Each structure stands twice: as C-alpha cells, then as structure tokens.
C-alpha cells in the first residue's frame, strides 16, 4: 500500500460519526468537542503517514481510532487546572501556585463568593464604599502603616508607585539593587515603563549614604531601595539602611520607596532562620512606602501590597492606573482573612499553610514518613521504598540560601524507568509532583499539606501500582 492509499484509509468524519462508539460518545459530550477530537486524531494519523508509518501500524491505528477519539475527548473535557500534591520540598513553588490558602480561609471565601457581598458598599452609611476598606485597616494594624492599598502583584505595586510619584523625574537606586526576578522582570525595565528616569548610584557591592546625597536633586522623584531577597552579595560590601535614606528623603521632600519583595510580618530568626526585614520594621525605620508580595512569606493570595504614609497612598489610589491594577473580590476577601490571622502569631503558624510548613518539627515529618511507608507495603514488589533525610527550600525568590531539614520517601523502580514512574504520578487522577534523581523518585514530606497526606498513600498505590482501594 503506497502513501496515497494510506491517506485514503483514514475514515472520513461522516463515517466516524456513524460508528456506535462515537454515537455513545455523543451522548456524554458536546458535539463540538467530539468533532474537534476527531479532527485532531485524524490529523495525527496524516502526520504519522508523512513521517513514514508502516502499513501494519497504520491499520492498527485506524482500528483503534474510536478509542483514541474517546480518550482525546475525555482529556479535552477535563478541567485544565487541577489540585496537585506538592511533594517537591519547595514551599513556595511558583509553578504550583505559590502559597496555598488554608481550609478556614477557603470556607469563609466560599460563603462570601457564592453570594453577593459588600465589596464596595458601606453597610453603616448605606452608600458606596471603598474596595480596600475591608483589608486596609488590618494591614495598618499589623504593620504600623498609616494607609495601604493592594494591586495584582508586587511588580504592579512597584510600577504604580513609581508612575504615580516619579513619572518624568529621576529615581535614585543603588547599582547593587538592580534586580531581576522570574519572568525577566527587571527593575530598570519597570522604571522605564513608569516614565521615570533611572539614576544609579554607588557600585555593585558598596553604596554609601554620600552616594545618595550627591544624587538627590531638584528633579528627583523618589529614592528606591530594593531588598535583594532572591540573591546575596557577600564579602566586601556596604549598603545604606532605610533609616539613613529616610533622613535624606525627609530633608529633601523626596519619598523613600522600599521594595521588600517577599515581605514578612514575622521575625523568622525565632524559627532558626536568618532575619529578614519585616514590613513593620521597614515602616518604623522611616520608609514612606513599602511594596511587598502577599503570596510569598505572608502566605496569602497573589497580590502586591503598598503600605505607608497616607498622603502617598492617597496619590496611588487616585491614579488612573489603579483601576487597571485593582484586585478582585476573591483577593480582597482573602487578604482580609490573611492579615487577621496574624493577630496572634502562634495561630498564624497554625492557620497559614506556608508558615505551618516552615515551622514543622522534623519529628512530625519522621512520623509521617513511617506511617506512609507502612501504607505502601503493597508496592514492595515494584519499588524499593526507603525513608531518607532531605532538605527543603523556600522557593519563590525568598530565602535563597536557606534549607529546611526534612524527611522524604524515595522510590527506586524495579521494572520501569524513573521517568515512567514520575509520569504515572504526574498524570494520575490526583497528580503528585516530586523531585527526580537519576535512579529514584523523591517525595519530600515537608510540603505535603495535612489534608493531602490523608489521601497520599491511596493516591500512590493507585498511580504507581494500579492498586484500587
């Protein structure tokens, strides 16, 4: 059979639609989905013929075409975004959505979002209210700021602050703080988009107070200090503290904007981690505006918070860009609940998942490991399963050099490759995302949520061993 005959052997769409298997499929799925699946599967056959597929294989593919169409339809009809179990050991895994919200937060959100709410309505006055009113007071209460507002993310927060306060003017920044974060987000590029002019001072490793003093002039719109949360410069270094920059700003009438990046409300040194500047410390030191992420060390929804002096926040609220960057009702509600949780630090460590992961004792993780290994005994014929020490990390551009001692379960396949085993986990009904080494799968338990751990054993048995419970 030559190539043209192979092409002609592909059934036409009308013929496929008349097959009983496809008729059954149309009872369960929309016709548009089924037709798209037919088109994609027949196109795949044409491509394989063009690549030189053998006649015997082609006949087999045509015979199995109804089954392929069903699988394709089911896959297209399934939800694209799914809940996954994070067993990578990276707490703020950007590709897995960064900070998960707690069960208590989600129950409250479900109640709010399945009905109407007073998002922009003042129940006391009976008139239109402000969207940020619900969380602003909590941000101010927990940080010491006079006022606050929230936008889509921290990049948007920095962009809005620079646009509203420094467009057409110079912004003074240390050369050692010209950062780039994920997705090629660079401070100089944000500066350009804001309409401000970049004025670099100092050197990569040393920037003194005098460097800023020389640079501040009549056309200075702001002094920008950026916390380098995703890298460190060590050795012969010097940077200028916020308190000293604040003295220049106050003397010259220039706002000092601090981009904290990850942004924490807790003193992490209490938990054996290096001290990160907190939002409240930065405001107390005299920063006029502090920008930080809500979905990193704070443990909330994706948003960028801008907190600080009332007169500067007011200018941001009135800026036309604010409407384009404003948060939705889901984020507004989640922010209020996140900041409320910090009223008692010990409760925050329990109620906010990422704080809970960071502070989990190693003894708890060891208990989880032994319990899980016991549940996985039926997989003993297919995998060598062991409990090992591991090191988790923060991720998300936060605490780049810090690691958390952890416990992991490792799987060394006996009858398949590590790549095949990883695919089984990733493509299961409840995907499990793990680390992969050359010869084993590594499931780090520090990042497995408590509610996910309850089903993890069953998920692993089903995905890795095909064992239904």
TrEMBL record:
Keywords linked to the UniProt accession: Cytoplasm, Protein biosynthesis, Pyridoxal phosphate, Selenium, Transferase
First-listed, main subcellular location of the protein, grouped into a coarse class: cytoplasm
Catalytic reaction equation(s): L-seryl-tRNA(Sec) + selenophosphate + H(+) = L-selenocysteinyl-tRNA(Sec) + phosphate
SUPFAM superfamilies named in the record: PLP-dependent transferases (SSF53383)
MF term (GO), any: L-seryl-tRNA(Sec) selenium transferase activity
Residues bearing the modification N6-(pyridoxal phosphate)lysine: 296
Known pathway: Aminoacyl-tRNA biosynthesis; selenocysteinyl-tRNA(Sec) biosynthesis; selenocysteinyl-tRNA(Sec) from L-seryl-tRNA(Sec) (bacterial route): step 1/1
InterPro entries attached to this UniProt entry: PyrdxlP-dep_Trfase, PyrdxlP-dep_Trfase_major, SelA-like, SelA_trans, SelA_trans_N_dom
Coiled coil: none
Annotated ranges, domain L-seryl-tRNA selenium transferase N-terminal: 7-46
Enzyme Commission number(s): 2.9.1.1
Compartment list: Cytoplasm
GO terms, biological process: conversion of seryl-tRNAsec to selenocys-tRNAsec; selenocysteine incorporation
Family indicated by similarity: Belongs to the SelA family.
Primary role: Converts seryl-tRNA(Sec) to selenocysteinyl-tRNA(Sec) required for selenoprotein biosynthesis.
PANTHER family given in the database record: L-SERYL-TRNA(SEC) SELENIUM TRANSFERASE
NCBIfam families cross-referenced by the UniProt entry: selA
Protein name (Swiss-Prot/TrEMBL): L-seryl-tRNA(Sec) selenium transferase
Organism of origin: Diplocloster agilis
